Amino acid sequence: MEGVGGTPPEMLKEESQPSHVLPTSFEANSLKKSNWGFLITGIVGGTLVAVYAVATPFVTPALRKVCLPFVPATTKQIENVVKMLRCRRGSLVDIGSGDGRIVIAAAKEGFTAVGYELNPWLVWYSRYRAWQEGVHGSAKFYISDLWKVTFSQYSNVVVFGVPQMMLQLEKKLELELEDDARVIACRFPFPHWTPDHVTGEGIDTVWAYDARTFRGGAKRTRSTHFQLVIQIQ
Ligand SMILES: C[S@@+](CC[C@H](N)C(=O)[O-])C[C@H]1O[C@@H](n2cnc3c(N)ncnc32)[C@H](O)[C@@H]1O
């Protein structure tokens, strides 16, 4: 009795269809594929951004006029630095402090130690290491360009530099440091100063210079230091 007195079958067919049209298996597959596409693009893109963010501060020193890369001090080198600091006290700065190992070793020896470092990742890591080693109270780290920092307040200065920067740094420290300061150079000596002490050998060699010696007896007080700074500026 189909079609008699009731709804025509073709109408019935149409009405029984759901309001949302389900995708065919082909469409569902391509939808899944495009979701995967987005996910993979996101992961690859995110990874590239992360690698770029981490690697850039390590690579940029190579692009500067003076290339001072991150090369951490050896254990022997640190021992030699500590040896040169025996009988010394007070404040200490590591110029280009890397992962903070010199600053942390100095803090453990009782110094109020500070590190200036251009690479923010290394500074954050150094702070974490100082906290882990229990010396975060006396080991501080700052993200700074060494050429923009004045070192006059430090009586002990450590630097593991490169030969190309030592002459410029020699002039800067000569101008800024007090007479009772000691400068310790790791691996590369200063070009004109005569060291008061040398210890270690090969890449672990460490030179210690006392400000009175490299000034040749010319006494500098805090006020003459500021006069000189003002004259230069
Ligand atoms: C040879 S590493 C020495 C690291 C650390 N002092 C040690 O002995 O283990 C030199 C460090 O200086 C940093 N550096 C390079 N240029 C700098 C700048 N203009 N100011 C501050 N730090 C800089 C580098 O990122 C690197 O960590």
TrEMBL record:
One of its GO terms (biological process) is regulation of mitochondrial ATP synthesis coupled proton transport. Its main location: mitochondrion. It comes from the Eukaryota. GO terms for cellular component: mitochondrial crista. Residues 1-21 are annotated as: Disordered. InterPro entries: FAM173A/B, SAM-dependent_MTases_sf. GO terms for molecular function: protein-lysine N-methyltransferase activity. The keyword S-adenosyl-L-methionine applies. It is found in: Mitochondrion membrane. It is a single-pass membrane protein. Gene3D superfamilies: Vaccinia Virus protein VP39. The chain crosses the membrane at residues 36-55. Keywords: Membrane, Methyltransferase, Mitochondrion, S-adenosyl-L-methionine, Transferase, Transmembrane, Transmembrane helix. Mitochondrial protein-lysine N-methyltransferase that trimethylates ATP synthase subunit C, ATP5MC1 and ATP5MC2. Trimethylation is required for proper incorporation of the C subunit into the ATP synthase complex and mitochondrial respiration. Promotes chronic pain. Involved in persistent inflammatory and neuropathic pain: methyltransferase activity in the mitochondria of sensory neurons promotes chronic pain via a pathway that depends on the production of reactive oxygen species (ROS) and on the engagement of spinal cord microglia. Belongs to the ANT/ATPSC lysine N-methyltransferase family. This is ATP synthase subunit C lysine N-methyltransferase. The gene is ATPSCKMT.
